[in-house]
């Protein structure tokens, strides 16, 4: 996961240069080959090296190029489309994890080989046969709109008082975006969000098992699984919501519900309250990965989406890597989770404030182009 994040900016630049389709196909080949080679590992360092390879491949076939493709194809219902797309993550976990568990019972070598083959089959043929980088490649416009030909435009202009207008999208580049305070507010928000989510998930079972609640030990591990599983519904819901109230305010609601979920976890006194936490936090947590590309596109357009969004992915991954370490260090120093969870509440509050002040910036008139 850390490799996926660290290579996000590179994946973004390559996406902008060669297109999402090329990068996804290349990533699928690399990750599939890495998984199959893992079946031949005989030393511990083989695992580290080959997991690095798999991480690089999954970065190429992951959320950066997929987010770019969805942003190219959809404008009005981009949130819904992104929600459906990212819900595949939860669906994949629901199906692949039990399959992997079964394959490991045969042998771990078999598991790696089959996962590599599945990687090839599920990604490469559909992308090669179906995927187009932009709707223009299929003679279309975003959202399935029919393109206006020169004759139609001339007919419209011939009508007295008629005006033909086109959307204007600023030509944001990475360097221009990085000079905008809104960009760093967005990056900070998802860095903090990644820190909080990973910190909570990594320590959820340990925290629950230590609670003096009858039967909690049998529920803790199951609750963690459901926390991730219910996130699939959150991806769909927050994607849809982003189309209705803007992705920025959907993200503020997403982080706010996560904060409420942590409060519920802190005050939990029964197994029933544990399941309330699972529903609230798990549902809200699911919206995080859906909303990241949506806010990026909303604030900075699609011109250099991959390169700009790659740094957001990097920030989220570094935060996710830091979260469990931070929570563990606070627990070791204080001897309880009280201070650790209080810190998480503060992190969420700062992330919400950062999103609130992140506004769509403007470029000079010379930096905008007429689309269409």
Write the topology of this structure.
Blueprint: H1 2-6, H2 8-18, H3 20-38, H4 44-60, H5 63-73, H6 78-106, H7 108-130, H8 150-158, E1 168-170, H9 174-178, H10 181-209, H11 216-229, H12 231-245, H13 247-267, H14 271-300, H15 305-334, H16 338-357, E2 368-370
Antiparallel strand pairs: 1-2
Helix pairs in contact: 2-3, 2-15, 3-4, 3-5, 3-7, 5-6, 5-14, 5-15, 6-7, 6-12, 6-14, 10-11, 10-14, 10-15, 10-16, 11-14, 12-13, 12-14, 13-14, 13-16, 14-15, 15-16
- CATH architecture grouping of the largest domain: Up-down Bundle
Helical/strand content category = mainly alpha
Total number of domains? 2
Secondary structure: helix percent? over 70%
Distance between the termini: 39 Å
Write down the overall geometry: globular
Number of helices: 16
Q: What Rg is obtained from the alpha carbons, in whole angstroms?
A: 22 Å
Give the uncertain stretches in residue-range form. 161-168, 368-372
- Could you spell the SSE succession in H and E letters? HHHHHHHHEHHHHHHHHE
CATH class of the largest domain, named Mainly Alpha
Mean pLDDT over all positions: 85
Query: How many DSSP-defined strands?
Result: 2
How would you name the CATH homologous superfamily of the largest domain?
Answer: MFS general substrate transporter like domains
Main pleated sheet = 2 strands, antiparallel
Q: How do the strands of the widest beta sheet line up side by side?
A: 1-2
């Amino acid at each position: 996961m850390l490799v996926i994040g660290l290579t996000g900016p590179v994946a973004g630049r390559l996406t902008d240069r060669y297109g999402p389709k090329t990068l996804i196909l290349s990533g699928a080949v690399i990750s599939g080959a890495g998984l199959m080679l893992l079946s031949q590992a005989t030393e511990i360092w083989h695992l580290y090296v080959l997991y690095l390879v798999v991480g690089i491949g999954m970065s190429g076939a992951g959320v950066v190029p997929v987010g770019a493709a969805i942003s190219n194809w959809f404008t009005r219902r981009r949130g819904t489309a992104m929600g459906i797309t990212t819900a595949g993550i939860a669906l994949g976990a629901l199906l692949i994890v039990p399959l992997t568990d079964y394959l490991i019972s045969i042998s771990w070598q078999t598991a790696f080989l089959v996962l590599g083959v599945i990687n090839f089959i599920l990604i490469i043929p559909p992308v090669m046969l179906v995927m187009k980088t932009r709707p223009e490649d299929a003679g279309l416009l975003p959202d399935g709109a029919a393109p206006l030909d020169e004759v139609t435009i001339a007919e419209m202009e011939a009508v007295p008082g008629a005006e033909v207008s086109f959307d204007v999208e600023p030509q944001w580049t990475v360097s221009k975006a990085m000079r905008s305070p809104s960009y760093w507010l967005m990056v900070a928000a998802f860095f903090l969000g990644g820190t909080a989510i990973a910190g909570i998930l990594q320590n959820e079972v340990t925290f629950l098992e230590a609670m003096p609640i009858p039967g909690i030990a049998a529920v803790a591990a199951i609750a963690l699984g459901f926390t991730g599983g219910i996130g699939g519904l959150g991806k769909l819901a927050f994607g849809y919501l982003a189309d209705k109230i803007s992705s920025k305010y959907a993200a503020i609601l997403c982080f706010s519900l996560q904060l409420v979920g942590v409060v519920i976890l802190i005050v939990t006194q029964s197994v029933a309250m544990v399941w309330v936490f699972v529903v609230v936090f798990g549902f809200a947590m699911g919206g995080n990965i859906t909303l990241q590309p949506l806010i990026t596109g909303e604030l900075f357009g699609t011109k250099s989406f991959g390169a700009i969004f790659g740094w957001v992915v990097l920030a989220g991954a570094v935060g996710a890597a830091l979260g469990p370490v931070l929570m563990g260090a606070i627990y070791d120093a204080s001897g309880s989770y009280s201070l650790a969870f209080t810190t998480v509440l503060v992190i969420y509050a700062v992330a919400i404030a950062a999103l609130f002040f992140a506004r769509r910036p403007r470029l000079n008139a010379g930096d905008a182009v007429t689309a269409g």
